[in-house]
Design brief:
By secondary structure, the protein is α+β, with helices and mostly antiparallel strands. The chain has 2 domains: about 60 residues; about 110 residues, Sandwich (Immunoglobulin-like). Helices cover about 30% and strands about 35% of the residues. It is built from 1 helix and 10 strands; from the N terminus they run H-E-E-E-E-E-E-E-E-E-E. The strands form 3 sheets. A 4-stranded antiparallel sheet has the order 1-2-8-6, with no helix packed on it. Strands 5-4-9-10 form a 4-stranded antiparallel sheet, with no helix packed on it. The termini are far apart.
Length: about 180
């Protein structure tokens, strides 16, 4: 009868088992790290899209409507109504955010582009406040300097756009 060495056989049989266990542990660790990395990236992306969705919703719900535009001498009076779902600021001054005023000839040539309450479009009424939802407000401006219409003939048509700090915009037409 031949004698076998028990100790040597056990070492050869255990080494592949330890190798398999180590490989499985490394696979589980790599999968766990990948899972947590994916969850973190997903939450960052979702947080960014939630913020974008809220901003987009606010912009969509902002709507300003021009009821009447009237030029009397150098004074332009615009009656505005907030028909959206959020209050719209009428901010003055050159520091952003501000309400900008753009005026064009009927041909599309830009006459002036400025902010409200500048030397070109001095705001005399309705500026600096927010127009609440459903509210109608008069915004009156005295047009001077580059925005002056004194060199244009009567019955000349003009178009204008008011941009309320990127929250909403509206426009209309009037005749001199």
């Amino acid at each position: 009868m031949k004698l076998r060495k028990i100790g040597k056989q056990n070492k050869k049989g255990i080494t592949p088992i330890i190798a398999v266990i180590l490989l499985m542990m490394m696979t589980v660790a790599a999968a766990g790290a990948a899972f947590f990395w994916f969850v973190r990236i997903q939450s960052e992306l979702q947080g960014g899209s939630d913020s974008h969705a809220n901003q987009l919703s606010e912009t969509i719900n902002s709507k300003m409507e021009v009821l009447v535009s009237d030029l009397q001498g150098s004074s332009l009076k615009v009656y505005l109504k907030n028909v959206g779902g959020t209050d719209i600021p009428v901010k003055t001054g050159s520091t952003s955010p501000t309400t900008t005023f753009l005026m064009q000839e009927s041909s599309g040539k830009v006459i002036c582009q400025t902010y409200l309450d500048s030397s070109h479009a001095s705001c005399t009424s309705g500026c600096g406040d927010a127009i609440d939802v459903g509210e109608t407000q008069l915004v009156a401006m005295t047009l001077a300097s580059d925005c002056s219409l004194s060199s244009y003939a009567n019955t000349t048509k003009f178009a204008y756009t008011l941009d309320f700090s990127g929250t909403s915009s509206t426009g209309g037409e009037f005749e001199k």
